[in-house]
Amino acid sequence: MIISVLVEISINKKEKTFDYLVPENMKNMIQIGKRVLVPFGNQKLEGFIINIKQESEYDLKPIIKVIDEEPILTDELLKLGKEISDDIVCNLIKIYQAMLPVGYKASNKTNMTIKEDKYIKLVSKDIALDFINNSKAKKQIEIIYDLLDNNMVLKNKYSSNTIKSLLNKGIIIEEKKEKYRIDNTCKIEELKILNSYQKDAYNRIKNSNKDVILLHGVTGSGKTEIYMHLIKDVIDKGKEAIVLVPEISLTSQIINRFKKHFSNKIAVFHSGLSDSEKYDEYRKIKRGEVSIVIGARSAIFVPFNNIGIIIIDEEHSTSYKQDHNPRYNAIDVAIKRGKYHNAKVVLASATPTIETYARADKKYYELVSLNKRANNACMPDVIIVDMKNEIKKGNSIFSEALINGISDRLNKHEQVILFLNKRGYSSYQMCSNCGEVIKCPNCDITLTYHKNSGLNRCHYCGYADNKKDICPKCKSNSLKSFGIGTEKIEEEIKELFKNSKVIRMDIDTTSKKGAHEKIINSFMNHEYDILVGTQMIAKGLDFPLVTLVGVINADTLLNIPDFRSNEHTYQLINQVSGRAGRSELPGQVIIQTYNPDNYSINYSKNNNYIGFYNEEMKIRKVLKYPPYYFITLIKIGGKNYEIVKEESQKIKNYIYENITHATIILGPTISNISKVNNIYYFQIIVKFRNKEKMKEILNELILLEENNNKINVSVDINPNNL
Length: 722
Ligand code: ADP
Ligand code: ZN
Ligand code: ZN
Description:
33% of the residues lie in helices and 24% in strands. The protein is an alpha/beta fold. The longest helix has 18 residues, at 641-658.
């Protein structure tokens, strides 16, 4: 017997496997999808069994051992991996590894442990009764009564000496039981009764004959309640449900709501868990002990065998697309898995992506809309403030309206959220004498100043250096700080409102485990009056006492050179606004901008998604952007600038010679970020209409470039950023 094994050594080859001989005594353990340990040169490597065959033309080495008792990759996942690897033009092994948590990856070096609790139990009832009747040891008798009532009791409940004597007398024995690190057990409550709009949406989702449904519901319209009702139906039929949520800042709230109704039927997966916690959660799934998984992007790959529904909350979130290799999109994967299991896929958002809404508009997806907030709360009142006028009054960071709004809320003991899409203190240092900007020596990206640490930091590669006093170019002492970040806002607010309590939430304050939850809970408990944060606080959070949301600078997203910048601005303003006035108290939103006439800001102010969609579609059509054209970004990186440039041109020519349909090729040009960690990057952007043909060309291209060691080529289909 011979097996083909996929090992991580083949990382630069799209789908290269190596053949091995199976010794007689291991034959009955061989199954496709299990991991094996194999000799490779003078190393030992783990790999996945991909194929079983009878002969090979080569002289083969035998495998060392079979690692898994059960296949780690199911049939479905094996096939799914192949499809994805073709769709997104990446290596098969990368996809398989991305499907698994650390403890299950091939080539995993960490040693995951299983946690156990020690229990005690009686050897026999007769011996126990005999002891009770003939002994005067009060403490020992107490334990025996407990065991007669409860069968098994945690060992550490009683003093170790008392237990030792009972053990020595042969009256009790010790037993170990496996314990999961996360326990979602909770007292179960009934689901809320849906209001008539929710009921209608719920029925339309259930009765739809389409595979994919877009649930377009304004913030606070009660979408989460609908998910729970849909899921209850599915698990009552013995099937399983996957719920994807965009960010960990959101998961704790949603998990708490689900726990109340589904208790320990839930497993959770997100980046806030430790490797061992993920290992435990994965075992719950493999053993069929849970029927609902709630998690971030990678949770789409959980090895459920009978999926009944997949729900993608905040479907517009860019976090569903992985922005490093393998660049899969969890929504595309969800739709494939939905087809395989004959399960509905529900994409939900108050601000769907233009592409998703266009598909619903064209009736590829079912469109279900919810236009009212669930608990009779009104949509907030939105005010746009022109910062050009404020500057004239001397207000560079906070407008008069915002200052008045904040002090009004503080007086009324209500809460405020201030949003800024930039972390750090002041964005960057620039010389007012010669115009020099302090940049990262590795990446050619402006460094961001962080006041807490006193360092200039690169947000791309992590490079850090002390703040500069003297301009490195003209040697003058004219370096000034420009731009503002969350850290600066926090400081300014504390200065302006001395008696207020302010807390900040961004990458810098949430790096510790559990930090997100702590900040959210303490703000929820009104230990703080004002929450300052980045997009981390924009989505999904539900704080009843928040009645004012301030968007400090709505232009930070508009000014990013990306064809989606208006879409992102609309989404972000709408999402942040959705944090205001979610209960009885009416909400207000103040948007500060230098572009008060911009269409995305104005449609968002009026909560007019359809208006924005129609306007944006016109622009997309003229400029040949998605959804009218597909877009692919090809990046070519290498150490030698001239060679990278030359090879990029060859790649462009190759694509040009092979295309047959309407296609636009832009570039090669130097990438926006032209140098990262001393590697130079060029890019080619391809806009095309025939997806299948382009997939063919790109897969062919990657095969050709496999052996080109002068450059590295990566393909990003439908990239998040250009
Ligand atoms: P979304 O997910 O659309 O933002 P949520 O499901 O979070 O909306 O609902 C917003 C608020 O309304 C929550 O506080 C929720 O508990 C409440 N709510 C939703 N549906 C109902 C209902 N049918 N009855 C009572 N309260 C509801
Ligand atoms: Zn200078
Ligand atoms: Zn850098």
